[in-house]
Amino acid sequence: MILLTGATGFIGERVLQKLSENNLSVRCLVRKPVNFGKQGVSHIIGDVLDYDSLARATEGINTVYYFIHMMGKQDEQERFDVLDRRAITNMVKACKVNGVKRIIHLTGMSNPEEKLSHHLASRKEVEEIIKNSGIDYTIFRASVIIGREGAAFELLDTAVRKFPVIPVMDWQNTKVQPVYIGDVIRYLVECLDKQETINKCYDIGCPDVFTYKELMQEYAKELGLKRIFVPVPGSWRRLSAYVLGKLAPVDANVAYWLIESLHNNMLAEPNDLDRIFGFEPLSFNESIRKIKEGGQCYMP
Ligand SMILES: NC(=O)c1ccc[n+]([C@@H]2O[C@H](COP(=O)([O-])OP(=O)(O)OC[C@H]3O[C@@H](n4cnc5c(N)ncnc54)[C@H](OP(=O)(O)O)[C@@H]3O)[C@@H](O)[C@H]2O)c1
User: Fold this and answer.
1) With 0-12 CB in 10 A as exposed, 13-18 as middle and 19+ as buried, what is 164?
2) Is residue 133 part of a domain?
3) Atom 36 of ligand 1 has which residue's CA nearest to it?
4) Is pLDDT larger for residue 3 or for residue 78?
5) The domain that contains 68 carries what CATH number?
6) Fewer CB within 10 Å, N side or C side of the chain?
């Protein structure tokens, strides 16, 4: 049986849909009762910050999908890294006690040569804890995931749709390689049967590399919107997060930490995923068209 964490989130919800379509038995760890209404899907109430609940949730589990981050916590904002560390340490301990065979995880892409933002440094730490746990793992790393309800994509969408004149700050030339949500879900679900992905980490990205300014320009073009970009010195993180937090369907705290991460380049290291999975990720423009059509993995 599979234990899915983050089943109510952007990634977990879509992975659950695929796992259920594939007739796999899934137990979802949730903080509040949810009726998923799917054959073979059950839920267990728990919290990754509560070890005892994880010890119960991992009983009889073969594979854990770990899709948790704590950036949205409002009471201990500066300390989401502490919470994320505690959460994954709890999970690893529970997995070991109950003999879980594998952890599958999605995290943020980062360049080991750069000083990482708080968010990416914390993501890296969680990744390292999984890798050093002694439990088999498969880890995928992504940058901006192109899909409705994805926090980074919703910020991009809001900035481009709502502002005819877009201020571009000191992150405008940072490079990024986004990836389509449908491709991310395929990697996460199809890796279950691919033994060669065990104990491997993969960067996943579309074939295109953009600066953040180019990404917004390209997105505006896809939407048929004329936009003027005005360079503004500085990073204006708090103001940007405040404004976007009001306009976008994204928590302002999450927006703040994601904006801080705009200074880190997110470029995928080459890998052999095309050979292993038998498909190539969609281009950015194809991804946007899929979203516009309400294509695969779109959820309103
Ligand atoms: N979105 C992206 O563009 C993106 C890009 C790269 C990597 N990733 C990675 O993908 C993973 C999943 O991100 P996401 O975008 O799906 O996040 P998300 O939409 O914010 O979902 C987070 C999930 O975590 C659950 N959760 C939070 N705190 C919890 C706790 N204490 N105990 C149990 N569950 C808890 C939430 O449940 P509740 O409903 O109870 O709050 C929710 O289901 C993360 O590791 C993230 O770094 C995402």
Assistant:
1) exposed
2) yes
3) 6
4) 3
5) 3.40.50.720
6) C
